[in-house]
Amino acid sequence: MLATGYGFAAAMMIVIGVRLHAPRNKAPWYSFAAALTLWATGDLCYAWQPSSPGWPLTQAADVPYLLSYPAFIFGAQSLLRTRSASRGRAETLDAAIVSTGFTLLTWAFVIRPIMDDSTLTTAQRLLELAYPAGDVLLFIMTVRLLTASEERTTSHRLLIGAILAQSFYDLWYTATSNLDVNIDAVVDVAGIPTYTLWAAAALHRSMNVPAAPAQTRVEGHSPRRLVLLAVATLLAPAVLAAQGMSGGGVVVDWPAITISSVVLFLLVVWRMSGLVTQLQTQAAQLRTMAHNDALTGIPNRRAWDLELSNRMASARRSGDSLTVALLDIDHFKRYNDAFGHPAGDQLLRDGAAAWRAHLGAGGLLARYGGEEFAVLFTGCHLDEAIAVLDRMRRATPSGQSFSAGLAVWGGQESPEALISRADEALYGAKEAGRNRVEVSTTLPAAA
Per the UniProt record, which residue ranges are transmembrane (predicted)? Predict the structure, then answer.
C-alpha cells in the first residue's frame, strides 16, 4: 500500500524536524514518531497478508497497531502538559462536552456493531473493541489541546489536525472493515493526508515555539468554539433520529443516548453557570472601574455625584448635618513643570492616600477633576470638619499644601448649588493667600 511508505517517511520527518528545530520538549515528538513507525509497521504486515495465506498476519498487524496507541496518547498527554499547564474550568467543560458527543457517536456506529457481531469470538471482539477505545482516548486528548486557551502556532494547528485525522482514519477503517469496500483504497485515501499532516507539523519552523497564553477574553465566545459545542450537543438527538428513521422507529441505543443526553445537559448547564458567574464578576469590576479614579484609586466624579445625592436624601430624612468641601493643591502646575508629570501623578496618589488616612470612616474623598478633590462629611459639625481639613492639609506630602472651601448644606438646596458655594469659598481661600480653609458665607438657595 502506498500509505505504508508515507507512514515511515512521516516518522522520519518528525525525527528530522526535532533535530532541525530543537524544541524544548522533545518527548511528545519522539513519541509520535515511534507511534507512526508502529502504525506503518502494522500497515506493512497487513499488506503482506494476501501473499502468505498460511501466516496469521492479521494478528501480527494488530500488535504494532495496538502498541501505537499508548505512544500516541503519551505524546498527546506530554504535549498537553507542555502547552496547557494552566487550564480553566471552561476549557475542561468544553472538552468534556465535545468528548461526550463523540463517544456516543463512536458507540452507536462503531462499538455497538462490533459487540452485536455474532461471528466474532470473545477474543476477536475484545481485539476489535480496543481500536475504537484507543481512538476515543486519543480524541479526548486532542480536544483538550484544541480547547486550551493559548495562541496556537502553525505547527500546533497542523499537529492537532494530524492527531484528529489519525483518530478518524482508524475509526473509518474499523467501521468499513466488515463492509464490501476496497480496504487498501480506504487506507491510502485516509492515510496519506494524515501522514502528510504529521510531517508538515514537524518540519514547520514554528514547532519549537512555546505556546503563549491567549489574550484575555470572555470564555468560550469564539464563534468556532460555539459551533463546535453546538454540533457536539446535537449529536445525541442526531443519533436518536438516525436510528429511529433507519430502524422503523426502534432505537436500539436508547440507554446510551439517554445517558449521553443527561451528561451533555448537565455539562452545558455547568458551563452556562460559569459564564454567568464570570459575567457577574466582570460587571462588578466594570462598576468599580466606572466609579473609581484610575490614578488615585479613590471615587471619581461620577461616584461623587451619586453619593452626594444619596447622602442628601438620607440627611433630609434623618435631619443629620451634611458638609461639602472642595480642595485644590496649591501651585500644582508649578510642581508639574519643575518635577515632571510622573512626579505630579505621584503627588496626587500620595496625597489621596494621606488625606484618606485622616478623614475617618464617615467621610468621603473623591477626585473631582485634575488636582481638585471633593470631601463629604455627614453628621459632622462645622468645627469638626474644619479641624479634619486642617489635619489633611498638614499631611499633604512632598512639602505641598492645598486650599479648601467649605459649605454646609441648608437642607433644601440642590447638589449643584451646594458645590457652587463650596467652590466660591475655595476661590476665596486662594485669594486670601492659599494653604488655608475658608467657609462659605453665602446663604444657601432653595432647591
Answer: 6-22, 29-49, 61-80, 92-109, 129-147, 226-245, 251-270
C-alpha triplet 101, 99, 78: angle, nearest 5°: 165
Number of residues assigned to the chain: 447
Helices (H), 340-394: 341-359, 382-394
Instruction: List the 322-329 sheet strands across, edge first.
Output: 364-369, 372-378, 322-329, 402-408, 437-439
Give the three-state DSSP class for 331. coil
d(CA 54, CA 420) in angstroms, rounded, equals 105
**What local confidence, expressed as pLDDT, does residue 91 receive?**
81
Cα separation, 148 vs 180, in Å, equals 40
Domain residue extents for the chain: 2-288, 301-439
The answer to whether 199 and 11 are in contact (CB under 8 A) is no
Topology of domain 301-439, CATH = Alpha-Beta Plaits (3.30.70)
Interatomic CA distance for residues 329 and 116, integer angstroms:
86
**Tens of pLDDT, residues 173-195:** 776 665 555 555 656 667 788 89
Rounded distance, CA 150 to CA 141, Å?
Answer: 16
CB atoms within 10 A of CB 143: 23
How much is the pLDDT for 307?
Answer: 94
Task: List Cβ<8 Å contacts ≥24 apart for 264-269.
Answer: 264/97, 264/100, 264/101, 264/232, 264/233, 264/236, 267/93, 267/96, 267/97, 267/100, 268/97, 268/229, 268/233
